[in-house]
Design brief:
The structure is a homodimer. By secondary structure, the first copy, chain A, is mainly α. Chain A contains 11 helices and 3 strands; from the N terminus they run ααααααααααβββα. Chain A is 60% helix and 9% strand. Chain A has a 3-stranded antiparallel sheet. In chain A, α3 packs antiparallel against α7 and α4 packs across α8. Chain A is globular, with a radius of gyration of 22 Å. The interface between A and B is medium-sized, with 30 and 29 residues.
Chain lengths: 247, 247
Amino acid sequence: MKFILKWFKSRSSNEDGTFYSTLKDILGFKPKDIDIYHIAFTHRSMGKYDEEGNPISFERLEFLGDAILSSVISAYLYKEMPTKNEGYLTQMRSKIVSRNTLNDIGLQIGLKNLIKSKIPDKQFSPTLLGDSIESLLGAIYLDRGYPYAEKFVMTKIVETYVDLDKLENKISSYKSFIIEYCQKARKEVSFIMSEDKSHSKNNLFSIKLVIDGTTISKGRATSKKKAEEQAAKRAYYSIQSKIKKKK
Amino acid sequence: MKFILKWFKSRSSNEDGTFYSTLKDILGFKPKDIDIYHIAFTHRSMGKYDEEGNPISFERLEFLGDAILSSVISAYLYKEMPTKNEGYLTQMRSKIVSRNTLNDIGLQIGLKNLIKSKIPDKQFSPTLLGDSIESLLGAIYLDRGYPYAEKFVMTKIVETYVDLDKLENKISSYKSFIIEYCQKARKEVSFIMSEDKSHSKNNLFSIKLVIDGTTISKGRATSKKKAEEQAAKRAYYSIQSKIKKKK
């Protein structure tokens, strides 16, 4: 830990002052152990290591914060939706803590200015903002305990950005939707990788979505998961439009 | 909630007294809101519903307790293993909160006597014991707050039953082990469903584990997942014995 302190202290007091005041505004309370917040916003690309050779980066705090976020959101949903079953609560929780939702919230809270990385601006991934919410939560927990972390989630995330009514109608995974739809309708569904250019320069995956032997849609993207989701989204809209026509 | 109270109050005060004192011994503190603990141990098979037609059962509390358990264990591992990365912490957490571990702990804590179900003894699944730890934790959280839930996990579960050294060497999923092993050794691995009797009376799944085109082992079980795990376990032992022979 000595090395971490030394490294943090080597930065100018001006820089420290800005970090502290920006952080205080975001938190809504005074941080005590500022070093842990520095770690929460330090990306691996900074190439910093402690004396034992362990990288100094936000990822361990992200692991911790992810679990605390899930716990706070679970308690919130349990109380807020007293008549919904555990399956429904699980779905709602997934929607709230989804990467997309967290990335948006991280951007709006203004975490970008706090992140220390050597990633060029062009390559900056919004995922880093969602990750930072979680590592920040881990830091709050270690600095001030569970009640502070809980209060931060409730006031800064849930009350400001979470709209349960909207989320209830949101589809978080088109693939899951299509699989459930087919199970209910007793149709056979499969996602078939029709072409795999994963070893070429372009790294493209192509997926055919086949329902009861008929190809319904195709998806192509840089990962298998994304290509499946694209194919499923297209199938979703084609099913929706057929339902509308029948009405 | 009125109906729940009525139903709980209709039971004899003797029965209530036993439940209360057994529970108090297990918890190590006096429960305040006893009704929430009754729900934590009520299985769906009791066929109880509240006035709005929602089943009274432990499952919503299990959803809540599961998240709280994960949060407490994450903080414990974060502090206990300061040099391990987030991937390692995630693996260790999975081992601690695995169904098998929780079922064992539930049995040893003595939760079986508290569970109210209409499942015949022969069909009693140990999974219910693991589920009950989680629903109990959800109840503790609602009754007395996070610090009590945390203390319960630490004293009654972690300090009594969790041996990190042992867990570090434990393989929680043979399938994951085999996949990782093949990735490192640059071998191609596939799990092939060679026979699917899922529609017959016996409901059996057969899985062939093929590495670099050669069938290494087979597994057969009542679910695809179990059959894969069985095949992977057999492959694991066959790989281990080959390594020993080479030495």
